[in-house]
Amino acid sequence: QVQLVESGGGLVQPGGSLRLSCAASGSFFSINTMGWYRQAPGKERELVASITSIASGGITMYADGVKGRFTISRDYAKNTVYLQMNSLKREDTAVYYCNADIKVNPLYYGVDYWGKGTLVTVSS
Q1: How far is Cα 85 from Cα 64, in angstroms, rounded to an integer?
Q2: Which of 42, 63, 43, 60 has the alpha carbon at shortest distance from 51?
Q3: Residue 79 has what pLDDT?
Q4: Which residues contact 5 (CB under 8 A, 6 or more apart)?
Q5: Bridge partners of 95?
Q6: Longest CA–CA separation in the chain, Å
């Protein structure tokens, strides 16, 4: 059973920093793209950042609203993705979800897996 477990959320003041982590565990063949999404109250879930597999070049992408403030990285050996969030704003308050495209069987396409989410609250 594949699982994604997030950690690192919490309460932070505007302008502060937080680092989220997400580790994939279980039995699988490979992990393709990993990413972070967020969902604020009353809003739809949105993509924050993603990073491709090392075989695909480890290419990163960011939503416009977080460029220059957030950094996504990945430890391929530990099957873990990180999101370093700096200069946090009140509008960054949301539940942050880890997502990974995981290939359980090498003969089939990857499947989307989701973590349960971790709450980030930016408030003074």
Answers
A1: 14
A2: 60
A3: 97
A4: 22, 23, 25, 115, 116
A5: 39, 119
A6: 50
Both structure tokens of 72? 């996504």
pLDDT digits (tens, 9 = 90+) for 56-113: 999 999 999 999 999 999 999 999 999 999 999 999 999 999 999 999 999 989 999 9
Distance CA 85, CA 100 (A): 19
Among the listed residues 14, 2, 4, 34, the one whose alpha carbon sits nearest the alpha carbon of residue 120: 14
Instruction: Tell me the average pLDDT of the chain.
Output: 96
Within 8 A by CB and 6+ apart from 116, the residues are 5, 6, 97
Tokens of 47: 């993509």
